Amino acid sequence: MEKSPKGEVVVTTVPLVSEVQLMAATGGAELSCYRCIIPFAVVVFIAGIVATAVAYSFNSHGSIISIFGLVLLSSGLLLLASSALCWKDPTLTAAAVNRLYLTVL
Description:
InterPro entries: TMEM100. It is a multi-pass membrane protein. It is found in: Membrane. The structure is a single chain. With 105 residues, the protein is mainly α. It has a domain at 33-97. The chain has four helices and two strands; from the N terminus they run ββαααα. The protein has a two-stranded antiparallel sheet. Strand 1 and strand 2 form a beta hairpin.
């Protein structure tokens, strides 16, 4: 909402965008999300290994750093697993994306 100089309230509406329109606008980049997640997942996973190793080398079981390390470790594993699932998804192949673009056109 915005106020006009006259003191009136102006409501602007945002049109809803369909998934097909989003794919047409981005060139299908949203289907390559798993390619972006893999490096981030590896970094988070390695940080989780390091934080967990440091925490357990000082015998600080249940401390904040050990919990933080385990959270990073599990988050990295979840991200790697989700990117692997997206990578194996047959609907994300180039042929399926091309068919989708041809149906849009």
